[in-house]
Input
Amino acid sequence: MFSFEVLSASSDTRARCGIIKTERGDIETPIFMPVGTAGSVKAVSVEELKDCGAAIILGNTYHLYLRPGMDVVNVFGGLHDFMKWDRPILTDSGGFQFFSLAKLAKFTEEGVAFQSHIDGSRHFFSPEKSVEIQLSLDSDIIMCLDECLPYPADHKAAKKGLELTTRWASRCRTFWSENRKRDNALFGIVQGGMFPDLRKESAMQLGELDFPGYAIGGLSVGEPKNTMLEMADHTIPLLPYDKPKYIMGVGTPEDLVDLVGLGADMFDCVMPTRNARNGKLFTSFGAVNISNACHTLDNSPVDENCGCYTCRNYSRSYLRHLYKSRELMAYRLNTIHNLHYYLNLMKEIRSAIREDRYDAFRKEFYAKRS
Amino acid sequence: MFSFEVLSASSDTRARCGIIKTERGDIETPIFMPVGTAGSVKAVSVEELKDCGAAIILGNTYHLYLRPGMDVVNVFGGLHDFMKWDRPILTDSGGFQFFSLAKLAKFTEEGVAFQSHIDGSRHFFSPEKSVEIQLSLDSDIIMCLDECLPYPADHKAAKKGLELTTRWASRCRTFWSENRKRDNALFGIVQGGMFPDLRKESAMQLGELDFPGYAIGGLSVGEPKNTMLEMADHTIPLLPYDKPKYIMGVGTPEDLVDLVGLGADMFDCVMPTRNARNGKLFTSFGAVNISNACHTLDNSPVDENCGCYTCRNYSRSYLRHLYKSRELMAYRLNTIHNLHYYLNLMKEIRSAIREDRYDAFRKEFYAKRS
Output
């Protein structure tokens, strides 16, 4: 049975450690989920993901539905066997891509009409259709279809969006209850723009629907960082304590450390993988731009204290050369390092919470970077 | 001590099995050398190269000299530590790149003046300079600087080219003998265009210089396949039997099977790696274009009988999806398959020679493809 349990809680912050149990394995929280948009976490193998410590990855329903398409995934009985990842997968609903990527997305009560960003073909997602696709992907954690608003949005639009999101969440819940064949989870997504009263309204309405888990959506859409943190700070305590809370699409290492302190349990973001492909590497002492000339003759690893495959084997000099030469190995080695950094950070976060020194950990984390 | 020994020879063809011994390990011949142009065999790690059975790889002196540059490689005492490949490396001399890639290459008695294809900067390679760079790369097999002619070239130009190549070979040999600090090998390169008399002249002149090994250059430059095979057939027996013979830049699996039958011992070619990045996969039953629609729903591997990582784990359907989506994993998985195919083919070739059934092996190889 899908379950979540809080195992230890920080005494001076809202940080907590827990465990999500799924049919495909346990996930210690707080957790970061690498993004595998189209059936592959870009540039890395499933073995490398496991070596980096990934317990769960994210797949994008919008992308997978368009390419390869459900006829292909159905041949394999779902996404796991197609991409040979046997640990849990969380799939998003498509809601964020209708906001960020699809062409001419038109939201009505019934659902979203949109055109593919790949070939302009026309499609329609109802809340039921989104869940149906996610069930076919055999996802372990399914997300409700939501309406994500641009920033800034006015109060009226944000209210309209959250209320539609609640009605869709209810339809998703019904469809999921009646159609799932395996034990998996459905998460509701809180919307409400940057308005505390609307975030509260959304959290209350979704709370009544009693989801196995909750996400906070509509953050990291262009708002100032303080606003993002304020919204999370305000919203997290409004959601049931004993359910996992997932902050969607966030963020920097600093964001993760801050949000865990506010009670967040789950994260996903393209930042470690995308930045890797742009030569930006994360370390405990801040970011390293591997293309900088200062690394040309530097035979030391990116981070002396890092235990990843890349740092154990390769120098800054070599990584810079690969990156400048656009060698494909550059993207792999950089991605391994960044994912290891993110996943190791979550591991350190969990240790700090278990040992009830999260506030000290957070201060130390920031001190190392300044 | 660098050495080569013929261990078994086919009774009905000129194929032979041998062993090249180097300070960095033994190489069973006939062998295929994956091309690691700029300090990386594109898309694959050194561990994957070893898993595919690579005993030696090739590095390009021209590319490495321009980028990262010798100041960088010198920090690591050579190419091996820079790229973390601890098995033998053969480096070419730059001769082929002056022919194929560099801008405004100007050949004089002294050497070659050229402009970088990367930034247009001006450089000069003498035969001595080419060997000096290869010694700094700490290459295990060093190639003499040669003049490679375009196809077609007239008899006069080809004669002039081979004679310059011989004079340069002599200079390379002197410089190498006086400056090498470690046990490595220097190979002479036979030129002479598509003229049997000139190939003979070149082979005789180089034979007198007594190199540890010999290459046949200036093939696969646009001539018909039969001409290439005729030139190899004519030239190989003119070179010392007890020295390894390397056919540069060739070729298809068919070329390799044919050339081994003519007495060739070593090969390099970008074909398995480049074709992989273009979705063209090699199999015992011919080429597979992974982007073809027929693979869309095909959950079988590229080759049921292939033992490579890609075929053991992934379907044609998934590989097609990755390729169509331009996922970086497509290039890796395809490259692993193609390199495994080439290196496994060489393994089968060696077995067939050892069991003295090379002619039968060759017929069977062709029968499977038709």
Q: What stands out?
A: The mean pLDDT of chain B is 97. Residues 270-370 of chain B form one domain.
